[in-house]
Predict the structure.
Amino acid sequence: MLDIDDLSISIGPHEIVSIEHLSIPAGRRLGLVGESGSGKTMTAMSIIGLLPREAVVTGSITFDGVPMVNRPERELSKIRGSEIGTIFQDPLRALNPTMRVGKQVAEALRLHNTVPKQQVRSRTIELLDQVQLPEPEVLARRYPHQLSGGQRQRVLIAMAIACDPKLLIADEPTTALDVTVQKEILELLGRLSDELGMAVMFVSHDLGVIQAISDHVAVLYGGRLAETGPTDQIVRSPRHRYTEALIDVNPGHPEDITASLGKALTTIKGSVPPLGAFLPGCRFRGRCPHETERCVQEPPITEMDGGHVFKCWNPVEVP
Amino acid sequence: MTDLSSTDGLFFDYGSHTRRRGVDDDWTLRDIAVTIPAGSTVGVVGESGSGKSTLVRLMCGLLMPSRGEITFAGRSVNDWLSEDRLDFHRRNQIVFQSPASSLDPRLRIRTSLSEPTKALERRRPDTAELTGWLADVGLSGDVLSRYPHQLSGGQLQRIAVARALSVRPDVLYADEPTSALDVSVQAQVLNLLMGLKSRHGLTMVLVTHDLAVVARVCEEVIVLKDGQVVEVGPTADIMTDPKTDYTRTLVQASRATSLSF
Amino acid sequence: MSDPTSTIPSPDADGLELFDIEVVSPRRRLPPQLVIGAVIVSAIVAVGLVSIFWTPYDLEAVDVPNQFKSPGSDGYLLGTDKLGRDMTSQIMAGARNSLLVSMISTVLSLIPGVLIGMIAAGASPFWQRIISRLTDIGIALPGILVALVLATSLGPGNPTAIIAIMFWFIPTVARVTMGPSRQILSRDFVEAARAYGRPRRFILFRHVLPNIGPLIIVQASVMFALAILIEAALSYLGIGAQRPTPSWGRLLKEAQPLMDKAPYLMVIPGLSIMIAVIGFNLLGDGLRTYLDPQQKAKGAG
């Protein structure tokens, strides 16, 4: 349903994102994982045309058979909100502080004329109920600042699904939340996606969170796609050396403590270079412990079973 | 192990009129009694609003308790602050969560790094000393002439650690020191903290919301909820066999969002 | 709610807000307003300075035969008034007076205003509320009325104008300083400074003042423009500068009865005031853009 091909996003002289291919079938969930500077947010925002003005986009993004790149802003804004819903990390900034939350959800319904006028009110309550807010009638009359962080994110989700979008773009929606609330929101998103047949692109820096929500993952580093495929397969046996490192640096399971307490964590040497300071060839060069001479060239795309794809000259051996 | 720092019947609230408030009223922290053994690494966990950051700010003298007592090295913190204020501060240092906000954007790293020594020891550290402190946290002396906006989050957090350790404290409080960092940088900073702790014989109190970090770094855990202590104990016990529903919920939620192989 | 410090930030919180990409920022260019404003302001300052040592004619030299010369005639660049006094000289000297009064009143307002604002920001919530209310009252007081009351007790003249402008400005400066100071005081480096034993007073001067410096500079240039306007208005009303002290506002007042006979006598000081005010406003606006932290290179997140 969503297909990205040869996408390239540049600002000034720097190419920030360069992705050969990425797709989400209808109703599926894809996680986009990467650290700061990986271009994950840029990639997600390019789908709905929300990039800084000076960004130059080439390549093709097809949503539901319709090309999205360089579309006029008027058409894009129609698609945003009706066919593609978006939720962000900071719900407080996305909500109007002077408007009751029920009214904001109703507004989202009215904007795209999805339901007849008489039903807007009942549908609003229904939506708030659908995102599992307790006492939706009471809550609809509250202002954003009277809600907790988790409740605000739920309101935002209600607004995003108001028009039955085919795709939901979620940009770090749980990063600012407590771990217990985070778990609930992830469960809610998974359930809504299943029930409504809605595809989800979930952007996060946290592979654990991605694993909890999405069956497929795309690992980005330095604006390039390092590896993509089924999440469990990639977490269990990553092939790209960056994915391997990203998994290894995790502090581990909270229950593994007898084995790991006080032991040093695995690290990746150095830090992500600033834009324009990446070495030619593989983006992970210079930090990769398994670098070979071939790595100065752009690594080839290797495809495996189950849609597992990676770009690495010296991949992790499969046991 | 002897107790280096402890609290007893500690109440705190940011609002005024705390004197008139009853024990059962609304407090940011209520009736906290915890101990920090010398040389240990203690984790303070809880959700936002649980009061975990407030607790460490009280213990290092940045806030004054509304009621109750905080003891450091066998002496009331009140006494410390009125009689040996500078020595108390020298022995209790703190690192914060946001590396971007930890250093004054208008001062060069050299100046920021010299500040604690100037304030507490009334002398100006020389370049060799400054470079030594930076080397201790894995940075080169080049950064001395830089401004904070020229450095990465990981580098800034290392400098904040170096600044706190420059006065050779007994206790290092760290308030979510890695939650604003990328996971790869988090690993570097956690390793750094563990290394420094054993090299300098520090006592460390680590505030975090991430149980995976606690499991890796801390020997003991204090679990806070709504300003009260819910559970205290060795990390292994708390993680594998939580005694309260709240801790169990925390561990389960943390498990649900960490990598499973 | 009760624990403001324990929110969990995102890993990208310190990088670019929406896009997690560090963009190497191009070299900062001077905003055009800043350049134009700076040119106008330096021209006025230059004219004012020159007038201390030299003016084309003696300021008070009466020369009735040459009265009402229109601008540009017989070596009188800006014409002469009803007693044949040279307008060019008066405008030049007027610039000097305008700048002097504005500078003194701006500086004398900034120092106490910034101090009050900073100290209030660091005070307990109780004192913060009291000082906020006091500054509100100060801001709400009509400045012209204050000036009239002062004039009746002190008599008209430059000192009255300066004191009136100070009454006008100090509450505003205090108010403008307070918010940003409070913001700086809530940053972690301030808590770190307290943790290594720095007293509050030291923190205000060492950390708060330099960080709100750019804001104060911008505020000062805007105040300067306003002060020029107020000085002219007070002199026009007869509260400010009196003859023989040269002043644009006073020239304006004297030209009023002659509006039909010699309109240029009114237009020229009016234009001078306008150009000066625009110059300082442009300078302030340009500085605001130039010093805006958002424009500065962002650190890697």
About this structure: Chain B has a mean pLDDT of 91.
